[in-house]
User: What shape does this take?
Amino acid sequence: MGKLVKAEIFRMKRINSFWIFSLLLWLTALAIPFINHADSAITYFNGSLVSDGGVMFMMIALSAAFFTGRGYYHRTSMYEVMAGNSPIRIILSKILSIALPITLIIFIPHLIGLGVACGMNSDGIGDILKREPLFFLVCLRVSTFGVLLTMIVKSMGGTALVYVRLLIETFGLMIASSITGNDLMEGGADLVVSSSAGTILNNVCLSQQGLLLTAPLTGSVVLQIVLGFVGEVLLWGVISYIIYSKKDY
Amino acid sequence: MKVIELKDIGKIYGKSRVLERVSFSVEKGHIVGLIGPNGAGKTTIMRIVGGLTHPTSGTVQLFEHEEQLDKYRDRISFMIEDPIIDKSLTARENMEYVRLVRGVADKSRCETLLKYVGLADTGKKTAKNFSLGMRQRLGIAMALLPDPEVLVLDEPVNGLDPEGIVEVRHILKDLCEKEGKTIIISSHLLSELSELCTDYVIINEGQIVESLSKEELMLHSRSYISIRTDRTAETVAALEQILSVRDYKVMEDEELRLYEGLEDIAAVSRAVTEAGFTILRFALTSDSLEEYYLSKVSHDKKKESGSSPIKNLFGRRA
Assistant: This one.
């Protein structure tokens, strides 16, 4: 599997679009703390991440889908099969060579942004640092979803499907907000965490993950984020494994 | 040792049956030519061996193993359909990518092979600016990179100029004769295959029509007298009258192929001369792979439709 990971990273590093996407991700992650004029680490998380997390997650998912889709566009993914790699090895290698680097590309500037925000006012930093691994896990969940969905459709069309899912989530949340009378998309953290419907929403909707990250850090929140990650990866991972094992190129 | 063996392979796409009970094997060190018209199922067979297509029925064995085929595929290199090339990368970068995927330790092999296929001077030119022939040669270099025991090549000379075709032929012959590689190759250029292959598998409409070795092909090939005169039609009429010949073909280029009278070719020559025709060519020869293939495929079609395209094309009389 190490061979596939090295080869994929080598290929990504040599294409211009990778650096353009990376720059966009960096700028997004760095700019988010300042978009809402954050003056402390607390407002960075409570203010910016809630409203702009959706944009960040969308960019992560789309980037991951795009770079996975390139392999199908140039048919190099066929080469991986013909070189004698099993489906499970190919799937894991894509997660490690595409989803993980893209997560790191946004997570590192995110930490820098957080550092800048702390420099202004470090109130509540201890609590926030505990959330960082969870933020990383959510980013990894989003990028892994982008990779696996594209592996299922085996084409660049996966990028469009990632976007469609996020659009459906947004419309679904808008409808749910109007029915329940609560703004589920922004500032409805209490409702989302406390109600069973909210729990389901949080685990299903990628765009809701930012909201969950800003909720009071309890065991239930940690469990929801971890389960959300495991569920997402397992669901798409199993489907892509079946597709790789059974469906023709 | 059988490096590849297909047993009763069937493949159905939707309602269309692409392969039906396809069985053949490839022995180590042999060059097997997969011959058939477009849509016969040649590429599907190669894709099944490569793990890109899953057969609907039947079994595939690689290196005499039926399980964990992924593991054994590592010993085979494929070039199926167009060469798999990332067009945004240069030739060197594509080679490096394959080197990493296949875990080839020797970095210098990339350069050696690029020189071998004449692409060492392409510099920073990306593959999207390559001609079809250059891509084909890069594909061959990429296939050779892991030093595989078996090469599966689908139309490897497609898009190459005559010089390139000769080069590829030499490369493949070298690989088989000097390094004992096993090769499965499909090509529309049957003359190329006839110079290269040790075995042939003729496939038509998803079924194996015949599998035979070069020696068997020679035995099956019919010998004939190739005659060219200043007036072909009249020569045919004269030979029918003088020698009562019935088994012959008149080719499109006015060559007369006489399948009888071979035991006394002097009598045939004499008959032509005495009838007053000038002989431009007179030689004893035999059917080529192309003719054998056409006779097999047309025979297959004849069984279905009751007519022979060869008969219509060449005006053959039996």
Observations:
- The two ends of chain A are 21 Å apart (CA to CA).
